[in-house]
Design goal:
single chain; Rossmann fold; 6-stranded parallel beta sheet; 5-stranded parallel beta sheet; 15 strands; 36% helix; 19% strand; globular; binds magnesium ion
């Protein structure tokens, strides 16, 4: 058995539009009953909203297929300090996840300051959070992404807000989202997969691929998002495979490659190339 942890932005859609062929790969996983989760570092929406958005793009998924960094953060905090309190800089997805895990949202004396992303963050909220941190609240980041892609261009991400609080408060946040092992491991366990059976598919070296490499998962970089092929070589860690798009992947072929104990060679992986999107390179382990 193998299963997948799949990033969404830049892999399944880009700028609100489906990446051509992404639906074919995912719908194929559903038909073959292959375990997978969509993993997102966006904490704004809850899993049902995300599933609905994917369904409208023609992807056959249920809310159980979605795992957000907000959910991972809520689970982490519930384990660290059950029924605690949090001051939240973030939006609905994060608030819902914390509530569901038994947390109370407060605006005074919280156990934790929890930071997500959103468009309604104000400097007053950051100022309030700083005072709470200086008063002893622990700083938790849902993720450390420096920016988020939008239709109009980039906007500051969760990592940018967290950096402001770290600098001002002289503290270091604990981050739960990708590439943190916490989120990736929790998603793997939810699928009932072993390390060897888990494949990460993503478009970002610093989150998807780094997280996969750190946990010993197989990793596939897609070039349909924010990473250029020329940039990849400069990283000290490399994905197992690089393809133009998730549309170039076939589950049966990946199963043959990755469930085989023999390390894939460049020529064997090159046989995976299909259709007009040629497989570009494969980095042998
Ligand atoms: Mg992405």
């Amino acid at each position: 058995m193998i299963g997948y942890l799949i990033d969404m932005d830049g892999v399944i859609y880009r700028g609100g539009h489906l990446i051509p062929g992404a639906d074919h790969f995912i719908n194929g996983l559903r038909r073959a009953d292959v375990p997978f989760r969509f993993l997102t570092n966006n904490s704004q929406r809850n899993r049902r909203d995300i599933a609905t958005r994917l369904q409208r793009l023609g992807i056959d998924v249920e809310e159980e297929h979605v795992y957000t960094c907000a959910m991972a953060t809520a689970r982490f905090l519930a384990q660290q300090k059950p029924r605690g309190t949090a001051f939240v800089i973030g939006e609905g997805g994060l608030l819902t996840a914390l509530h569901e895990s038994g947390y109370s949202i407060v605006d005074k004396d919280p156990d934790y300051v929890v930071v997500g992303e959103g468009r309604i963050i104000s400097f007053e909220m950051v100022e309030a959070a700083l005072r709470m941190i200086l008063g002893g609240a622990k700083l938790i980041a849902t993720n450390l992404d420096p920016n988020c892609p939008t239709e109009a261009g980039l906007r500051p991400g969760c990592g940018a807000t967290v950096a402001m609080l770290e600098t001002a408060g002289g503290v270091k946040a604990f981050s739960v989202g990708k590439p943190s092992p916490y989120m990736l491991r929790a998603a793997r366990k939810e699928l009932g997969l072993t390390t060897d059976q888990t494949i990460v598919i993503g478009d970002t070296m610093e989150t998807d691929i780094l997280g996969g490499v750190q946990l010993g998962f197989k990793s596939i970089l897609v070039l349909s998002g924010g990473t250029n092929h020329e940039d990849v070589e400069s990283y000290a860690y490399q994905p197992h495979m690089i393809v133009n798009s998730i549309a170039d992947l076939e589950h049966e072929e990946l199963f043959r490659e990755f469930s085989n104990p023999v390390v894939p060679t460049r020529s064997r992986i090159a046989n995976l190339a299909r259709g007009p999107h040629a497989l570009l390179t494969a980095a042998a382990e």
